[in-house]
Amino acid sequence: MKGIISLYWDVAPETCKALWGALEKPIRWPASHAMFSGPEIMMGLPEEARNFDPKALPPENQTIQPEVGELLWFYQPKNFFKIDPSEFWEIGMFYGVGGRTFGPTGWIPCTYFGRMTEGLEAVAEQCRLIRREGVKTVEIGRLA
């Protein structure tokens, strides 16, 4: 399944610039279903694509109530949460209504950097499979 994402250059320019650079080469990464936030799949940004300083990104276009098809960026530095001391570079996508950025420690505002504008229904069906069947490999990159 293929979807087209339109980036929010006007309201999240620094995040879009960073992720556009990170996705110069397409990445394939295991995506899992979120536990607390509803209809969301999430995937990490692999080491080879981490070519920017995530701590330098300002909060942009943040919310806790995303719209269907929106993509988020979230960075968790090492030891940020007591329950999970890992560093985490996350790209998430909400594929259905009722999503919220809520985790085991409560509400977490995230930067929304784009929205899937084509192919969402077919991609959403695959996201529902991730929820039922478990982790699936997802590819994300620039459209040539």
UniProtKB/TrEMBL annotation:
Look up the domain of life of the source. Answer: Bacteria
* Name recorded for this polypeptide: DUF3830 family protein
